Amino acid sequence: MAYDPDNVFARILRGEIPCKKICEDTVTLAFHDINPKAPTHALVIPKGAYVDHNDFAARATDAEIASLERMVGKVADMLGVSEGGYRLISNCGGNAHQDVPHYHVHILGGRALGPMLAK
Length: 119
Ligand code: 5GP
Hints:
By secondary structure, the chain is α+β, with helices and mostly antiparallel strands. The protein is built from three helices and five strands.
């Protein structure tokens, strides 16, 4: 799938719409989800134009991949969910119900999250 430069996360990265930023570096941004599904619900995204995890894994530089992975851990610490536990989700494509076609990792925590998938 071609990258859509008008997706909502691209617009956040361009500063066209606001976000509640948690932290960033030159290649990665973390912010709070606008519609949280748990007491803690953050999103970590690359600043580069990647559609989904497959695209990111195939084309991102090692520096971009390291930055994103490390920022996920840092945000979990910053938001206080590392000790109690948290869940990472990255929806990829249609069967996973990916709504925003810019690669992102959800960090969910702050309560017992139940089984991994609804039946
Ligand atoms: P997906 O279904 O693509 O894995 O998840 C997309 C996520 O983006 C959803 O959890 C949704 O609440 C979040 N989201 C959609 N639009 C916005 C927005 O404008 N700002 C923020 N902060 N989150 C958004």
